[in-house]
Amino acid sequence: MTTTEEEQKHGLTSPLLQISEPNNGFGGDLCDVQKGISSSSGGVSASVGSAQVIEEVKKLLWLAGPLISVNLLQYCLQVISVMFVGHLGELSLSGASMATSFATVTGFSLLMGMGSALDTLCGQSYGAKQYHMLGIHMQRAMFVLSLVSIPLAFIWFYTGPILAAVGQDPDISAEAGRYARYMIPCLFAYAFLQCHIRFLQTQNIVFPMMITSGITLLLHVLVCWLLVFKSGLGNRGAALANSISYWINVIFLALYVKFSKNCKKTWTGFSKEALHDVLNFIRLAIPSAGMVCLEMWSFESVVLLSGLLPNPKLETSVLSISLNTAALVWMIPSGLGGAISTRVSNELGAGHPRAARLAVQVVLGLAVTEGLLIGLTLFLIRGFWGYAYSNEEEVVSYLAIMMPVLVTSNFLDGIQCVLSGNARGCGWQKIGAFVNLGAYYLIGIPSSLLLAFVLHVGGKGLWLGIICALMVQVVSLLIITLRTNWDKEAKKASERVYDSTIPIKITSCS
Fold this sequence. Notes:
Elements: H1 5-9, H2 30-41, H3 50-86, H4 90-115, H5 117-127, H6 131-157, H7 159-165, H8 170-182, H9 184-201, H10 207-230, H11 235-259, H12 278-306, H13 312-350, H14 353-380, H15 393-426, H16 429-454, H17 459-482, H18 486-499
């Protein structure tokens, strides 16, 4: 069976499933969705024309481009704060850098991971035209993430003693503790921000996020300058500027959601229904957080382990630069991962398994192309890239040696980003969490320890261990993706969507 005319013509802003007008309180009929799955499932194995591939590329790039910009702009908030602090002295810079790393590991990564559960819930609900459920899911996520932020705030409050207890320099620990305390308001703002981003992203509304992130960044520079240099707060002013800027971004997006016509169907106001079935969200949010945290923590652990190597100052400097470089170029595949999670969740929710499969095939091609281009660029600039971070010839030379390893990890990381995005779109977070646990903590970290401390390969050995983990992760997720029965995934999506609430009126299938 060939693709239906509706499936060929639906766009990023048009409904993904043409069904009858809502008559059951959902916005659609479960019977219609099941018919949609049946009508499109026969075309999963049909040939795909070049026009369809080009159209899918346009949709993915239309989504990914603004998402990459959003990732970069939000990443720059922390970077700019640390840059301002760097002008205050070495101790202030060390404290702010350590506090930022600690905050990422103990707070931001967890909230971002839990918020990614909305990729599945909101994305599939939007595809199934259950528009009002997007607002319910977002409110539910905001409630849960706010509760999670409370114990995280206590952890941040005692950042200084915690760092000192694990052997960090007392002066740096104390400075990091002061910085982290002024960043506590960031936690709650970041929780709400993640919920709003996923809410809008799954509706293919990405340009407003890019605009608000850009405005926030410009204001952040001004706020940092005022609080760091003019108020007398010093590095505490930079931390407070982070909190203010995150809340500004949240307010911008909240106002857009409330007053924009694009969100009229998906945001109908606060509802008590958001407090029901919270456990269902938590069951998906915990493995979602596991997927993100297990991977991010392993990269951070590499930098910590580098401090135990001979010549720790050089090793830590080079691996920190490598990690920052990897984080910077990671924004591109991260945007592709967000785009594919939206495309897959929308199409599965709409009952279009063939379109979901095509989207995955196309995004893999884009990820490979992007990885090769970025890898070639990094390889060509390997001899002088280190000067962007240091004037020490030893650091620059070592980084040039590390660059081929970094290029390899970036290529693999790009592929796993889009495969992980597909997993979120399908709702495979639990599988993804187990894959990441095995890849990074049964293979990656042990390999890093073996290569660095037993075989004495040094810092390069630590990063080669991460590459081993990435290879296992990519192969595992690729096998799972290739063995996917897309018809079953579409049916699971419809069951997840329609089990999330109780219909007001049930219409029998004829």
